[in-house]
């Protein structure tokens, strides 16, 4: 005959998908010092939860940095294949996402187009994501990798504005100041002030291709921001459903875009064919790792690591592989934009803390009282 204590020791552990039951039990501060009703010390339970929490933290960091590395290598391939039309590279990228998402979708036994009540949101996520990636690949063709990455990863600033418009979320003076400084950073990166110099110091840097690349990067940023808004409306959808619809919608959009703005051309044999294959593979793996990171760790930390990691890898590949040294305007603009992004993420994290949080109490104690 089993005792109640045996039942406790042999209870089924909670899975990651269902959420950790230890987290719920350890939320009460008394568990660290008291005995539960079965006579079992909660110190061991609290220790187990701490180990699980540290393991999840490392998983989230590894998933995020691995996804960031995949996306940065994807950008390197896009920049290297200059003789292939940007729309055609986008087509192969989406084709890889579509093909590699099929096994996961079949295994998960999910409805391919998602639940009927949020099917429109899934479709809009595919549309916005497709246009955003299509424009990003065009921007990589005309601008350095690092410049495009910095402009695109000002997304958190624009998400705040769109969340105010479409989701009626609060947007105060802090968000307005960050948006203003982000525009200043983008202006510095475009070297627009050089156009207003007089005499021999005036440098004409805004060529037609440069302007087109900047517009594509900004357009990609806007569509990426709208993706975040749509995702807020489509919570709980399995990642295989998102990738499947992202893939087939992207293939359709890139096919039409390539036929309108260019044409499909044969891929030369050798290295280029392997790079095209790697383009789709890295994109799909990056999307899966990024989704797992969001499921494992807080979105604030994931956004911070991805923004910082992408900018770091972009400048690294730009220097090592393409021998492109950024000038003072690019570095200055990137510094302003990165500062705004990190401050915005830190501000959102601070507001999400409970009133009795040690961090809130620390800053509150150092603010002079009127």
Task: State the end-to-end distance.
Answer: 68 Å
Radius of gyration, in Å, reads: 24 Å
Q: Could you list the spans in which at least 5 consecutive residues all have pLDDT below 50?
A: 1-51, 198-203
- H/E element sequence: HHHHHHHHHHHHHH
Quick one: biggest sheet?
Answer: none
Summing up helix and strand content along with how strands pair, one would put the structural category as: mainly alpha
Helix content: over 70%
Q: What fraction of the residues are assigned to beta strands by DSSP?
A: under 5%
Question: How many DSSP E strands?
Answer: 0
Query: How would you sum up the global shape?
Result: globular
Would you tell me the overall average pLDDT? Answer: 74
Contiguous helical run count: 14
How does this model look, in words?
The chain is an all-alpha fold and 370 residues long. 72% of the residues lie in helices and 0% in strands. It contains 14 helices and no strands. Helix 3 (42-80) packs antiparallel against helix 11 (271-296), helix 6 runs antiparallel to helix 12 and helix 7 (155-166) crosses helix 9. The chain is globular, with a radius of gyration of 24 Å. The termini are far apart.
């Amino acid at each position: 005959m089993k005792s109640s204590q045996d039942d406790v020791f042999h209870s089924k552990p909670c899975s990651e998908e269902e959420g950790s039951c230890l987290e719920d039990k350890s939320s009460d501060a008394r568990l660290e010092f008291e005995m539960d009703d079965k006579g079992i010390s909660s110190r061991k339970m609290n220790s187990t939860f701490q180990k699980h929490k540290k393991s999840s933290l490392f998983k989230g960091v590894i998933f995020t940095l691995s996804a960031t590395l995949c996306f940065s290598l994807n950008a390197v391939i896009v920049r290297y294949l200059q003789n292939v039309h940007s729309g055609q590279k986008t087509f192969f990228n989406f084709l890889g996402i579509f093909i590699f998402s099929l096994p996961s979708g079949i295994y998960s036994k999910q409805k391919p187009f998602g639940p009927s009540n949020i099917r429109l949101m899934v479709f809009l996520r595919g549309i916005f994501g497709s246009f955003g990636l299509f424009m990003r690949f065009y921007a990589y063709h005309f601008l350095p990798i690092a410049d495009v990455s910095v402009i695109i990863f000002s997304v958190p600033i624009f998400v705040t504005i769109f969340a105010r418009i479409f989701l009626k979320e609060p947007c105060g003076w802090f968000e307005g100041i960050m948006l203003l400084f982000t525009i200043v950073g983008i202006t510095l990166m475009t070297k627009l002030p050089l156009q207003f110099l007089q005499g021999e110091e005036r440098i004409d840097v805004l060529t037609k291709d440069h302007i087109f690349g900047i517009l594509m990067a900004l357009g990609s940023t806007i569509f990426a921001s709208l993706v975040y808004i749509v995702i807020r409306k489509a919570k709980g959808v399995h990642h295989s459903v998102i990738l499947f619809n992202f893939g087939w919608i992207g293939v359709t959009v890139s096919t039409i875009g390539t036929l309108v703005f260019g044409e499909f051309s044969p891929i030369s044999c050798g290295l280029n064919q392997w790079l095209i294959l790697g383009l789709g593979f890295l994109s799909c793996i990056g999307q899966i790792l990024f989704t797992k990171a969001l499921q494992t760790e807080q979105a604030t930390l994931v956004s911070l690591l991805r923004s910082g990691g992408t900018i770091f890898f972009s400048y690294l590949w730009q220097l090592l592989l393409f021998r492109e040294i950024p000038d003072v305007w690019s570095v200055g603009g990137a510094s302003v934009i990165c500062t705004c992004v990190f401050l915005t993420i830190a501000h959102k994290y601070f507001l999400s803390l409970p009133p009795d949080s040690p961090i809130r109490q620390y800053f509150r104690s150092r603010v002079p009282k009127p």
